[in-house]
């Protein structure tokens, strides 16, 4: 279902690459490593076993049969996973399609006032459900959006209980209080927040509204989770990936470029940007030693960014690991008709298809990286579907847990964002 | 119209920041620098004086009154500028708006076969114009797309001359040959290609079809060009910006994050990624010395990425300069209604607006960067309109020309992408 080809990391000059033994580990070592990971956080991978969650969400969703628009109000981890699901699993031009069988998802992960006004030009309030996602219930973006839309709902003499649905902590918090007091329904937020939440109600609820195959999504994640729990390093893909990232970072590859060769996977790279940046960018180790570690994630897209970024990757500083995502069956064959037999410059495309062209460009680009001593690896999946997207989510989440161990940092907190949050609170109330 | 606030680069610890004198230069020095820049390339800034171009394009566009969809087939510099124009100057949800006064732009900057098939579900072929953009006429992506769509046009018994328009080199190349032989119309490609082409026919033609204010776009660019030609360093914003980027790169800030606080400017960062990466990522100096220089551009968006990237920027390695784009008037005031006077946790939002909230978050986030010794500067514009977008394009293009001089590299070539292109050609014809 999913494999990783590390070959080009072995082929580049030694100081820029890896040796095969770098990705190996004894059963004993992997056992110890896994037991450390378990002691930090088991929720992020055990949630995929909770298949009852899907039934609970389906039950809630069944109450909103007439809805045409679902507006997700969330930011960061409450939005990026859902955006990735939307872009990976729906039609590329879903918004423009005339007849739709599922409600249109809009994900408002910003508070630009222009966005707050222009969204009203395209949604039909009586047919819209607002999904407010915040674990704590105090994140300024979704909460301000909630008050804004609720005000409009009330002005239109509609019932907020029918048009607003919370995803929030079932134990505490502001949104839970409002839910109890005013009867606005809620789906419980799972035990993992933010960047690890896509496989919980945070991602599964909008995915259910959009009619996605959430069962296969969790199945793909579970199958990868099983590899992650294996003490056989050959099978443990998250271990191998994390090991490669870590050892190459030690060799100066402080930037990881994720470059899918599939239009629908473009937003996987956006989701991953948060996961890697926020989990591994840390000032201190667990024991309080100042280290300022971190790997900077960069999003790229093939073939598009070959015409934009490849010049830098090849000739610039040797500070990058390129992680390509390749898809075996993007689509059934779409031939490129050779309409100009008279033009010798175009004959290299004779008999080609778009499928072949994107593949050949990908392989050529990776071979060029290798020639330039830029380490690159390729993650292969069979097709862009719910199963493989679930597997990718778990591959990356689990590899992050290993990275946390290698760096001896807490991969699950984010102390560095508190200062700006406090300043916002202080300055807004003063303004 | 546009100003740059460097204050926070002066406030951070000395080893991570700048001194005010770093951005100064004598009239003489600037004169020499400008004369070096002129000797490399004058086209990129002189094209904005060619206001007859707009008349020529308007004349061509007037032949396509019934068109509802304009599909731009181009990649890299032939797409990124147009995407930025589309996202900056059109409604945020233009695709979903019911009544449109202008044709819908689709920009196909990839060759994923899924995209090539799914686009057909949303365009109406008899009402569609395909704009094929390639200076050389041999770029595989637009050329394969051209043959694919032309084949469909012919199968539908439509006339290719009415549904295809080339933007290509008026002197030579494959598309020009086809234009002459088959009468498919063409708009001449300007003298600057790729990443410097947005202010030429490459960007102006789709902008004209989409009814954008191209006059103001060029006016903004011209006004900035005049600052760029000034030998007074205080006025020369492109000089100051380039100087800051260069000196901070020498202090280890090898990553430049462009972070607009405006949903509509998100794609300015994508356009800039190509400009910076491809221009400055170079293996050799002009005299052939091996240097492997480059600055890695990273796209971020405020407030969205505060919840995703800020942890890394603050606590991770000190390898970044953050370049914020701030907009004075994003929209007329959109108040946040305080619907929950009973909840003390939300009272900090009392009396606030989305305008205020995004501003306060931006300033708080920049102040946090500064506290963490992460150098950051803010480019202020009045509003997101054609004039200011034109000024931003020219600010960045001109600063790149200066960067080329500081590094003594050719900022206008891209030798590092040839290898993959050759491998593609070879392997495709062999396949």
Blueprint of the fold:
The structure is a homodimer of 431-residue chains.
Chain A: E1 2-5, H1 7-11, H2 27-40, H3 43-46, H4 52-61, E2 69-73, H5 80-89, E3 104-108, H6 113-118, E4 128-133, H7 140-155, H8 160-163, E5 164-168, H9 174-182, E6 186-188, H10 201-209, H11 214-228, H12 237-250, E7 255-260, H13 266-280, E8 282-284, E9 290-293, E10 296-299, H14 310-315, E11 320-327, H15 354-371, E12 376-381, H16 386-407, H17 418-430
Parallel strand pairs in A: 2-3, 2-4, 4-5, 5-6, 7-10, 7-11, 11-12
Antiparallel strand pairs in A: 1-12, 8-9
Enzyme class (chains A, B): isomerase
Main location (chains A, B): cytoplasm
Family (chains A, B): Belongs to the GPI family.
CATH topology of the largest domain in chain A: Rossmann fold
Overall geometric form of chain A? globular
Write down the CATH class of the largest domain in chain A.
Answer: Alpha Beta
| Euclidean distance between termini CA atoms of chain A | 54 Å
- CATH architecture level-2 label of the largest domain in chain A: 3-Layer(aba) Sandwich
What's the helical proportion of residues of chain A? 40-55%
CATH superfamily of the largest domain in chain A: Glucose-6-phosphate isomerase like protein, domain 1
Biggest interchain interface, per-side counts: A-B, 130 and 130 residues
What is the makeup of the main sheet of chain A?
5 strands, mixed
Derived from helix and strand composition plus strand pairing, the structural class of chain A reads: alpha/beta
Q: What fraction of the residues of chain A are assigned to beta strands by DSSP? A: 5-15%
Average pLDDT, all residues of chain A: 96
Keywords (chains A, B): Cytoplasm, Gluconeogenesis, Glycolysis, Isomerase
Family (chains A, B): Belongs to the GPI family.
EC number (chains A, B): 5.3.1.9
Pathway (chains A, B): Carbohydrate degradation; glycolysis; D-glyceraldehyde 3-phosphate and glycerone phosphate from D-glucose: step 2/4; Carbohydrate biosynthesis; gluconeogenesis
């Amino acid at each position: 279902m999913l494999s990783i080809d590390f070959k080009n990391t072995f082929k580049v000059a030694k100081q820029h690459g890896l040796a095969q033994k770098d990705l190996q580990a004894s059963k004993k070592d992997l056992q110890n490593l896994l037991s450390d990971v378990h002691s930090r956080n088991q929720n992020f991978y055990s949630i995929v076993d909770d298949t009852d969650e899907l039934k609970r969400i389906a039950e809630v969703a069944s109450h909103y049969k007439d809805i045409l628009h679902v507006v997700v109000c969330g930011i960061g981890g409450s939005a990026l996973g859902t955006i990735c699901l939307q872009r990976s699993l729906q039609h590329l031009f879903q918004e423009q399609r005339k007849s739709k069988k599922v409600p249109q998802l809009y994900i408002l992960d910003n508070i630009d006032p222009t966005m707050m006004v222009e969204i009203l030009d395209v949604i039909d309030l009586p047919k819209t459900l607002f999904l407010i996602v915040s674990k704590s219930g105090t994140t300024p973006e979704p909460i301000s959006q909630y008050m804004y839309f609720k005000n409009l709902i009330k002005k239109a003499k509609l019932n907020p209980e029918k048009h607003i649905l919370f995803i929030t902590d079932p134990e505490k918090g502001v949104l839970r209080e409002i839910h109890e007091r005013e009867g606005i329904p809620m789906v419980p937020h799972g035990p993992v927040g933010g960047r690890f939440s896509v496989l919980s109600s945070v991602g599964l609820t909008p995915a259910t509204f959009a009619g996605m195959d959430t069962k296969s999504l969790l199945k793909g994640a579970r199958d990868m989770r099983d590899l992650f729990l294996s003490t056989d390093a050959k099978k443990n893909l998250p271990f191998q990936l994390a090991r490669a990232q870590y050892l190459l970072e030690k060799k100066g590859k402080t930037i990881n470029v994720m470059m899918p060769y599939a239009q629908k996977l473009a937003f996987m790279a956006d989701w991953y940007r948060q996961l890697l940046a926020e989990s591994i960018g840390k000032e201190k180790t667990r024991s309080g030693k100042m280290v300022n570690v971190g790997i900077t994630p960069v999003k790229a897209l093939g073939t598009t960014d070959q015409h934009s970024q490849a010049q830098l990757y090849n000739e610039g500083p040797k500070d990058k690991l390129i992680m390509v995502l390749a898809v075996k069956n993007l689509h059934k064959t779409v031939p490129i008709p050779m309409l100009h037999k008279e033009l010798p410059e175009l004959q290299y495309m004779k008999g080609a298809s778009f499928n072949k062209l994107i593949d050949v460009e990908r392989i050529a680009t990776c071979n060029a990286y290798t020639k330039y001593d830029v380490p690159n690896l390729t993650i292969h999946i069979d097709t862009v579907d719910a199963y493989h997207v679930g597997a990718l989510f778990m591959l990356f989440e689990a590899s992050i847990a290993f990275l946390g161990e290698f760096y001896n940092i807490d991969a699950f907190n984010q102390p560095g964002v508190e200062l700006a949050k406090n300043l916002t609170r202080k300055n807004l109330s003063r303004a």
